[in-house]
Specification:
Layout (H helix, E strand, L loop, with lengths): L1 H16 L28 E6 L7 E5 L2 E3 L4 E2 L2 E6 L3 E6 L2 E6 L8
Antiparallel strand pairs: 1-2, 2-3, 4-5, 5-6, 6-7
Organism: Vibrio galatheae
Keywords: Signal
Protein name: MSHA biogenesis protein MshK
Amino acid sequence: MVRIWLFLLIFSTSAVASQDPTAPLGWQQPLQNEAAKVKRKPLPALQSIVCIENNQNECHAVLDGQVVLVGEQIGGYKISHIKPDTVTLVKGGKSWNLNLFSLEVKQ
C-alpha cells in the first residue's frame, strides 16, 4: 500500500512541476502557429565571375556550382546584374549584392 501511495505521489509532483508557478490563474500557453514559421532558402554562394575583355556587358557567374547569366534564376532568385566583382540577385522586390571578395582586409 505504501508503494502505491509513493508511486502516485511521484507522478503527481511531476505534473505539478510542469506548470509555471508564476503564471496567472487559468492562463494557458498559446499554441505555436506552424504557418508563421517561414523557411527561407539561403542565398546562393558566389564562386566566380568571368567577363569577356572586349565586352563588359557579357559576364557569367558561377553560383552554387552552376553557370548563370543575367535574367536566369537559381534557387528562386533572379540574376539582375553581373559586374566584374558583384552579382545582384532579386526576389520578392528585395535585392542582394553578392561580392566576389570580402571588403575587409586582414592585417
